[in-house]
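> call design_seq(struct)
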């Protein structure tokens, strides 16, 4: 492929990067993890790298029953897979946001997300040996850390991961963690179940994490950096146990998955207010038509072409989403748009009127052959 330009492909200036602020994301996948826990994956139509420190969180901005609601969730995915982010949410009886997400969030839906922020992460406290402790859905931030170390082949980081759940069917990411522990020698995973229900088999640890159990799971825990997240009673018990054991608490880090720093919510609300004002301002729209399907829509200038197709009720398949693979190539019959690709289209194709819809922006009225 003579027109393939490796310098364009690797040029960081052609790919946007994520920064703390307000971002519109589109739901890509909804994955059932357990009977009451679901993972929601999000991405952008334009090429954006989601850079964050594993363990950090985002604040969702939702409209529920006509009111704006802000709620924070840890990013459960890893920055080693940078073109999307995921949150993992447990359905809580009476929980306004958790129930809304489980009942309403579907692939293709958009929502505003603020972040990333958070001091609890595996980057700012480097150590050759770490112990990850989690209870319930508090597994999400330490799972992000575990995925990061696993995906980046961090042979220099020895990881022991101990997760506590109520019953075997409540263990989140069980198969993935088993797989991770089977692939590399320096990753050990241990599951602890409070109890087992009728019909369930269980050969792992039973009861609650205690010092004797900890000594079996991680005999050298005194030498490790410890990251802990879970319900407050769980973290209180772990912290007390470590203090009684004489652990250096300077090397203990915790994050309550239910708490959100006031300053971060305040900043998110400030961004939301500004966005609400901006959305009320009149926007110039143009008509984008798709000749083969006979469909069209009025689209705001600056909208990604792939997203414009979605608004017109058309799905243009894409694979990479960043202008590399060329799967979303379409031909412009009338008008023009701005394209910022990463080598997935040749100059000859561009001269013929083709663009990659995933990295093209609507600037005027268009007729697209699709």
């Amino acid at each position: 492929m003579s027109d393939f330009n490796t310098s364009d492909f690797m040029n960081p200036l052609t790919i946007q990067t994520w920064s703390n602020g307000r971002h519109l994301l589109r739901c890509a996948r909804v994955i059932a993890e357990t009977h009451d826990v679901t993972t929601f994956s999000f991405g952008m139509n334009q090429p954006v790298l989601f850079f964050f420190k594993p363990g950090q969180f985002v604040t969702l901005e939702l409209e529920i029953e006509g009111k704006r609601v802000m709620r924070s969730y840890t990013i459960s995915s890893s920055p080693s897979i940078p073109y999307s982010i995921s949150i993992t949410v447990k359905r809580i009886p009476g929980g306004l946001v958790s129930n809304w997400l489980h009942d309403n969030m579907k692939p293709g839906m958009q929502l505003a997300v603020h972040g990333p922020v958070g001091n609890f992460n595996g980057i700012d406290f480097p150590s050759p040996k770490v112990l990850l402790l989690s209870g319930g859905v508090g597994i999400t931030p330490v799972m992000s850390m575990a995925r990061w170390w696993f995906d980046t082949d961090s042979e220099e980081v020895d990881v022991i991961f101990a997760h506590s759940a109520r019953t075997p069917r409540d263990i989140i990411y069980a198969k993935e963690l088993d797989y991770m522990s089977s692939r590399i020698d320096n990753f050990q995973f241990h599951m602890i179940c409070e109890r087992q229900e009728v019909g369930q088999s269980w050969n792992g640890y039973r009861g609650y994490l205690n010092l004797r159990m900890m000594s079996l799971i991680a005999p050298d825990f005194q030498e490790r950096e410890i990251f802990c997240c879970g319900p407050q009673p769980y973290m209180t018990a772990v912290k007390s146990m470590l203090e009684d054991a004489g652990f250096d608490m300077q090397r203990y880090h915790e994050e309550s998955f239910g708490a959100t720093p006031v300053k971060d919510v305040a900043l998110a609300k400030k961004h939301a207010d500004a966005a609400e004002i901006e959305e009320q301002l009149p926007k110039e729209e143009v008509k984008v038509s798709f000749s083969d399907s006979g469909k069209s829509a009025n689209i705001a200038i600056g909208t990604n072409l792939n997203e414009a197709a979605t608004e017109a009720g058309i799905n243009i398949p894409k694979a990479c989403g960043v202008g590399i693979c060329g799967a979303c190539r379409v031909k412009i019959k009338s008008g023009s748009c701005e394209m910022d690709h990463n080598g997935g289209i040749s100059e000859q194709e561009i001269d013929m009127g083709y663009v990659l819809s995933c990295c093209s922006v609507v600037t005027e009225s268009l007729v697209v052959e699709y």
